[in-house]
Amino acid sequence: MILLVTGCALAVLPLLAILMHLLREGASSIDLNFFTQVQKPVGELGGGMAHAILGTAAQVGLAAGLGVPLGLACGIYLAEYGGRERLAGPVRFALELLASTPSILVGVFVYGVIVVPMKKFSLFSGALALMVILLPLVARTSEELLRLIPQHLREAGLALGLPRWKVILSVVLRSAWPGVWAAILLGIARIAGETAPLVLTSFGNPTFPRGLDQPSASLPLQIYTYAISPFDEWHRLAWAGALVLVFTVLALNAITRLTGGSNERRRAD
Amino acid sequence: MSADEQTKLQPRIELETIGLQAYFGETRAVHGVSLRMPRHRLTALIGPSGCGKSTFIRCLNRLHEEIPGARAEGQVLLEGEDIYRRGVDPVLIRRRIGMVFQRPNPFPTMSIYENVASGLLLAGVKDRRTLDPIVERSLKQAALWDEVKDQLKRTGTRLSGGQQQRLCIARALAVEPPVLLMDEPTSALDPISTARIEELLLELKKAVTVVMVTHNMQQAARISDQTAFFLLGDMVESGPTDAIFTNPKDQRTEQYITGRFG
Ligand SMILES: Nc1ncnc2c1ncn2[C@@H]1O[C@H](COP(=O)(O)OP(=O)(O)O)[C@@H](O)[C@H]1O
Ligand SMILES: [Mg+2]
After folding, report:
1. At what angle are helices A123-147 and A88-100 packed, to 10 degrees?
2. What is the mean pLDDT of each run of 10 residues along chain A (269 residues)?
3. What is the distance between the alpha carbons of residues A114 and B102, in angstroms, rounded to a whole number?
4. What torsion do the CA atoms of A147, A153, A158, A161 make, to the nearest 10 degrees?
5. Which residues from B are below 8 Å from A when comparing CB atoms?
6. Which residues of A touch B155 (CB under 8 A)?
7. Domain range summary for chain B, segments of one domain joined by +
């Protein structure tokens, strides 16, 4: 028992340590400039993360906008039609491979098929890399959750004379939605912190991206840029950026818990 | 004899199977059953477990084929029209043939009101002025209105088992199907709920053609007009319920109804 408690304490300790440290180092640097300024030339004081925050929001938003519907479509296909389709096996296998691929390899892949032919790094390619990471997460969890919905509910819908697609969307997906929604939020939290695949795709940019086909900053990459620099001013910004990133991810997780919880309560009602 | 009197004596056949066979992959679960189900009568399907009653009744609304690998052969005539003819949309057939299952299966994400209205709601009918009277009528038909009229917004799955099953009956009735299929609708319920559902079936069959699988022979005797006895995928015999129970033609039917097997 004591061993278990110690184990748990050891597991929670790093998280607490990280949060404490980030708060101490970063909190004082979070001001209006942090959210409104872009990177200043070396030697000038000040500067901020506005371009990185916008870059991450744009890339994650695009990735989710494409990846969530595609992932849901894959999950629905596998769970609802997979039993009688020959394509289901290979699709499932591909998703499994994709999910276990190190994210830097996803970056290399997108670099090869998008960045090299276009001859430039771009926000779009970064979003695509993040989408490739998000898609299998959404597809696999939604497939599993849809499979948990009992067959008799599908039959109830079909017996009412509803077309199959309608039954899937309005009965099956709706019943599984709290879990699916949680999986989507967790997936978004995960890609918001991805760094490696962006090095080879959106690359980084000291100022606002001027278009989808232009290099773009992102929060994790900008933290890296600031952190490895020799300047105290930039170190300060790196700490602040890390703090914001961690709290964004934590907030997404918390929202997942809260909304998931309220859904369960509503269903039990 | 006038035509009217004739239809009274010989009711119109609403649903009829001709040489109906049902397969799960290579296994044949129903071996060529021909049965006529007259309009506004209650037909009971009896027989021991695993003899193909559920499979048979699920062929009547083309639900059987939704199981991967399952298919049906032969004809099922609904008002004379073969529902297995090429080009017939099973979705449209199922609008005309409602179904109630053995286990109550209300939609867990929907309120009582939404459950009853679901066949219309999910087909795009959203107008409360249209839906309200239909919901009330269906719940009254299913003898559930008085119990739930003050809690229509509550989740359907919060009701008791017997209430949930009546909710499912109301849901099936809301789309006004001329035929209602029921697969052991009371086998999961207590005697009081069972009695209520039997009562409502007697009322219902004045306007709806009912086909009901039942495990309970007293139930078949109490409420059905016609009974068909199934055994190992075959229909052994069918006829007026009195005749089947008092004077069966086939020895196996007699053995079954006297409780010697099954
Ligand atoms: N999904 C299925 N897959 C394969 N065989 C099935 C399936 N459902 C039922 N069967 C078989 O079909 C036969 C008839 O079953 P069923 O129609 O459920 O019988 P009943 O309703 O009379 O108890 C049984 O032998 C059963 O094992
Ligand atoms: Mg059965």
Report:
1. 120
2. 89 90 90 91 87 96 97 95 82 93 95 94 96 96 96 96 95 94 93 94 92 94 92 91 92 84 44
3. 55
4. -150
5. 61, 63, 66, 68-69, 91-96, 98-99, 101, 103, 105-109, 118-119, 122-123, 154-155, 158, 168, 171-172, 175
6. 267, 269
7. 14-257
- pTM here is 0.89
- Picking from B82, B29, B24, the residue whose alpha carbon sits closest to that of residue B53 is B29
pLDDT of residue A267: 43
Q: Do A156 and B122 touch (CB under 8 A)?
A: no
- Residues in B touching A81 (Cβ below 8 Å): none
At B234 the three-state DSSP class reads strand
Do B109 and A152 count as a contact with CB atoms less than 8 A apart? no
Q: What is residue A269's predicted lDDT score, i.e. its pLDDT?
A: 36
Q: Do B69 and A175 touch (CB under 8 A)?
A: no
CATH 1.10.3720.10 fits A49-268, yes or no: yes
Q: Which strand ranges, in their side-by-side order, compose the sheet holding B226-231?
A: B97-100, B179-183, B209-213, B42-46, B226-231, B234-240
Which letter, b or e, does each residue of A156-186 get, where b requires 16 or more Cβ atoms within 10 Å of its Cβ?
bbbbbbbbbebbbebbbbbbbbbbbbbbbbb
Please tell me the residue having the least CA distance from ligand 1 atom 26. B50
B253 lines ligand 1 (CB under 6 A): no
Structural element, H or E, at residue B76: strand B70-78
Q: Are B245 and B221 in contact (CB under 8 A)?
A: yes
Per CB-CB distance under 8 Å, the chain B contacts of A162 are: 91, 119, 122-123
What is the C-alpha to C-alpha distance for residues B15 and B18, in angstroms, rounded to an integer? 10
Q: Which CATH number fits domain B14-257: 3.40.920.10, 3.40.50.300, 1.10.150.110, 3.40.30.10?
A: 3.40.50.300
CA B103 to chain centroid, in Å, comes to 13
Whether ligand 1 lies within 6 angstroms of the CB of B50 is answered as yes
